[in-house]
Design a protein that fits this description.
This protein is an alpha/beta fold and 485 residues long. It is built from 17 helices and 7 strands. It comes from Lactuca sativa (Garden lettuce).
Length: 485
């Protein structure tokens, strides 16, 4: 029997005894027989009433216990009527006195609360035919995103904000819909695909802190961080196989013809360059990421990771190697790349990739002369090599100009960085293929200190081929004479 019903039963018995006393002890011998019969009737009625009330109380307690037992079987041991409610702890939770009673009820059913950190919070109800559950969320303005998401915003204004036109943005959203779309839940509506992609592209294009991105799009800081990583991962998985790939045989012939028209050097299939992306000092293996050359030049401690890229004559990346520590010179980064392994397997037999003085001369890597006291022929060759190498430098300048996050020390974890950098390269390719213009003032000058490798000449065959090309360029009027000025 429920403990709360015991005092009530005791009070009822006390009342009954009082009535008995009043009925039996009130006369002094002069009462009539009818009066005694009336008192006895009242006593019997009072005891009968108490007994019926006790049966009713007992029945209610049994019904309640049965209801709780059935509820535990169906929903688990969610709450306990004999103990106080145990609320979940939250990093942003306020004292219990400030939490609305509706939100406290939601905790009982195992739903985490997104408590507002200011007075601008509201409790929203979700759910259809099932039980209504209330979630305490913070009101955030989405006016900025609503403006750019509408058809009223101009093409130039949209391009200035996202570094691409509306059509290109729409194409990317359509390509990624299957990978990034989420379904609505009983707690909240999912962030739309367009807004998800916009958060990622805006973050990459501006390099703004997550706090500012959160204010612009009306989303939580952690939500924005999660969206950036999810969309970048989708770009790597879905778009990279389509828009960043090594050229096939037909494309290779077109590329070699264009590079030969540019420089006079035959059989060039790509221009290669390695740049550095600044990072915050990592917690482990710090020395490996310390960039001594940038530190000496800027007089400021610098840490970085490398991005090695090969581009075609349009500046579109055909191969990238991302994420090696900034202390590694260009030749070591090349040796660690998948391109190096494929070339040693015969992929680049009979063709050249042009690199700077930081790379070694090999059977498939063509670099300028680096020894002192060069001849006119060697000067002329270096000038033409510089024309080819300028293609990759300009491509990296546009890459860093479009995606400003590459110019700043990123807040992301080191293990997430390769995916984000790869997404930037893919988005760069899409913009280049679709002829998306970049503002000249956004072009970022690429300055990376190239170090001549310890073993700069690694192929006798390549040395002879380079000398022959230099001779042909000079004597067939393909070489320039600007080195004389």
């Amino acid at each position: 029997m429920n403990d709360k019903s015991v005092p009530q039963q005791q009070r009822r018995r006390k009342v009954a005894k009082t009535e008995v006393a009043n009925g039996s002890g009130g006369g002094d011998g002069g009462d009539t027989e009818g009066t005694e019969t009336n008192g006895l009737t009242k006593i019997i009625t009072s005891f009968f009433f108490v007994e019926e009330q006790e049966k009713s109380d007992k029945s209610q307690v049994e019904d309640k216990m049965m209801f709780e037992a059935n509820h535990k079987k169906e929903h688990g041991d969610v709450f306990d009527t004999s103990n106080p409610i145990k609320k979940r702890k939250s990093r942003t939770a306020k004292p219990a006195a400030s939490i609305p009673s509706d939100a406290a009820a939601a905790v009982d059913f195992g739903y985490d609360l997104n408590l507002a950190t200011s007075s601008g919070g509201v409790a929203t109800e979700k759910g259809g035919d099932g039980p209504q559950r209330r979630l305490w969320v913070k009101n955030r303005s989405q006016d900025w995103w609503d403006k750019y998401n509408s058809s009223d915003v101009s093409e130039d204004e949209f391009r200035k904000a996202f570094q691409m036109g509306k059509d290109t943005f729409e194409m990317i959203c359509n390509e990624l819909t299957a990978s990034v779309a989420k379904e609505n839940t009983m707690l909240r509506d999912a962030v739309p695909v367009r807004q998800r992609v916009a958060v990622c592209i805006w973050r990459l294009a501006t390099g703004e802190s997550l706090r500012l991105v959160s204010k612009r799009f009306g989303l939580g800081i952690s939500t924005c961080h999660k969206l950036v990583l999810e969309v970048c991962s989708a770009i790597k998985d879905v778009l990279m196989p389509k828009y960043l790939q090594w050229p096939n045989d037909d494309s290779m012939r077109v590329i070699t013809n264009e590079f030969e028209s540019l420089s006079g050097i035959p059989n060039v299939v790509g221009s290669m360059y390695t740049t550095h992306i600044p990072i915050i000092a990592p917690k482990v293996n710090v020395a490996a990421y310390f960039n001594k050359r940038h530190t000496d030049r800027k007089q400021k401690t610098c840490y970085s990771v490398t991005v090695q890229g090969v581009v075609d004559p349009r500046g579109v990346f055909t191969d990238v190697c991302i994420g090696w520590p900034g202390s590694m010179p260009d030749d070591q980064v090349l040796e660690k790349s998948a391109l190096y392994q494929r070339a040693n397997g015969g992929l680049l037999k009979g063709v050249w990739i042009v690199g700077g003085s930081g790379y070694p001369l090999m059977d498939w890597v063509l670099v300028p002369y680096t020894q002192p006291h060069l001849t006119w022929t060697q000067h002329a060759f270096n000038e033409k090599i510089g024309d080819v190498q300028k293609v990759s430098k300009d491509a990296f300048a546009r890459l860093k100009g479009r995606w400003t996050c590459l110019q700043k020390r990123t807040e992301m974890k080191l293990q997430d960085l390769p995916v984000v950098l790869g997404a930037c390269c893919v988005l760069h390719n899409i913009c280049e293929m679709r002829r998306e213009e970049i503002e000249p003032e956004l072009m970022n000058e690429v300055v990376d200190d190239e170090m001549v490798p310890d073993i700069a000449l690694r192929s006798a065959v390549a040395m002879k081929a380079r000398d022959s090309m230099a001779h042909n360029l000079l004597h067939h009027n393909h070489a320039g004479t600007s080195f004389l000025s």
